[in-house]
Known about the structure:
Blueprint: E1 6-13, H1 15-28, E2 32-39, E3 44-51, H2 53-68, E4 75-82, H3 86-92
Antiparallel strand pairs: 1-3, 1-4, 2-3
Helix pairs in contact: 1-2
Amino acid sequence: MKKYEAIGVIETKYFAVAMEMLDQVSKTAAVEFLSSQNQLGGKLVSIIVGGSISDVSLAVETAKRVNEMKQDSPLKNAVMITNPHEEIMRFVVPEAKKTVKKQIKPRAKTTKKIEEKPLEEDNNHE
């Protein structure tokens, strides 16, 4: 798992606002999008980004600036966590993203033996 100096957690109302914030954050700071979570059918969205401390700090500030341009102030919280613990990173980027390769075993060829029955003679022919 990749190690980040810091991660930023941005929590906002509305999926569309979250995408706008993620777009602006990605354009202004050299951060990597790690994950997102939708709650309440997209009415509450959490975005998590990772990178250097200065880049994540810039990303959090950018999210706050985008919020200032909005009428109803949809940003609920924007925080930076420096030197995130490995357990936090497992929560942020679940192990489920790893691809599990299935071992495909060859199927044994089965052939059904059809029971041969003697044909019934038609006695109607004279």
